[in-house]
Amino acid sequence: MNSTVLIFPGGMPRAQDYLQKCLREKRNVVGASSLGYDAARDQYPLWTHLPYVTDPGFNEALKEVVKNFGVSEIYTANLVVWNHLSGILGTLLPDVALANTSPVDEVLSGYRSALSKASTILNSPLPLASSVLPSDMISEIETASLVRYSDMIPGMCDDDKFRALIEIARCSVQGDIVEIGSWWGKSAFILSSLSRSFELGNVLCVDPWSNEHLIQNEEIVDSGSLQVDAEEALIVFQIGLQAFNCNHINYQRMTSVEASECYGKGLSVYTEAFGETEYAGRISILHIDGNHAYEAVKADVLAWSKFVSQDGWVIIDDYIWPYGDGPQRIGDHFLEEHQSRIAASFVMGSALFIQLHSSCRECF
Q: Nearest to residue 199, comparing CAs of 181, 224, 173?
């Protein structure tokens, strides 16, 4: 008989998450509960009953379940059950292991990690040669909150880029934050949080949320694009950001060039998810992270850089990118052609950060 994992009690939310993980991995699973009827039983391929751990017959009942189902591991999200099992398994069932660490450690690990990362960020500030006097740094708790909740949104934003985003937000003037290419919304969440922390301005996310617009003529990238769903990505974006919206976040589901034609002073954007948001028509931070093909990045820069305020920032994401050189070629061209308008520039993580002296109205 193949080894089986026992999930007990099977009805807890984290137990059901673990069930789905086991099913994806095609593991044998049996669920158990001490309730007379547990609605979760229908989710499990196999199900059994166990008495409460305080019942004198629990240990013998557990031995019987292990024998009957070939159990080699037990997962429990219940702290009392976990403590009891951790104390008895070594002698009662030495061949059976607990599949997880203490439920307290499990549930708090993300918060502990966020606090540790926040401490590292605050203890190693990034010195910028910026033309703007930096605002006071956000607190350790605020930084940890930003880390924790951004970790819960899918997407890619490495630690170095994360640090750089905090630092340039400190050294930013007031104005809109515009992101070209938001997809699931990780960096949009970070920027929207920083906009509130440093009182910068409202956040506008521009993305067609269309699989067609993901095509970059890089076979290895385009093959991955076929495995994601644009409609689902927009829903994930809405879920991730909606709870944090204070009438300062919204989006336009259209191409970058189309959205730039609408942008300007007095722009008002309404969506069912976020309501109505007003924009100033001048950009404090422009984050370009759309299609990475050369012509697409060029179009984004042409369409939007003219709106960047004096002392505003332009970020070209994936300037260092192993799958193509579109962002790097555009970034290098921008740096070369507008040296006199650049107050500061640096590469951190995979992104190029540029601070302008004045609005850049003709970029190519």
A: 173
Paired sense of beta strands 342-348 and 249-252, if any: unpaired
Of the candidates 286, 193, 195, which has an alpha carbon nearest to the alpha carbon of residue 240?
A: 193
Name the CA dihedral angle for 36, 42, 46, 52, rounded to a multiple of 10 degrees.
Answer: -30
Q: In sequence order, what are the residues at sequence separation of 6 or more whose Cβ sits closer than 8 angstroms to the Cβ of residue 337? A: 363, 364
Q: What is the DSSP string of 216-274?
A: -S-HHHHHHHTTS-HHHHHHHHHHHHHTT-SS-EEEE-S-HHHHHHH-STT-EEEETTT
DSSP state of 135: P
- Per-residue pLDDT in tens (0 to 9) along the chain, 364 residues: 468 999 999 999 999 999 999 999 999 999 999 999 999 999 999 999 999 999 999 999 999 999 999 999 999 999 999 999 999 999 999 999 999 999 999 999 999 999 999 999 999 888 888 888 899 999 999 999 999 999 999 998 989 999 999 999 999 999 999 999 999 999 999 999 999 999 999 999 999 999 887 777 666 666 666 678 999 999 999 999 999 999 999 999 999 999 999 998 889 999 999 999 999 999 999 999 999 999 999 999 999 999 999 999 999 999 999 888 999 999 999 999 988 889 999 999 999 999 998 555 555 5
The residue among 82, 93, 67 whose CA lies nearest residue 4 is 67
Element (H, E) at 197: helix 186-197
Domains contained in the chain, CATH given: 4-100 (3.40.50.720), 153-356 (3.40.50.150)
Tokens 């950009």 identify what position? 283
CA-CA distance, 201 to 178, in Å (whole number)? 10
Report the predicted TM-score, pTM, of the whole model to 2 decimal places. 0.88
DSSP state of 200: -
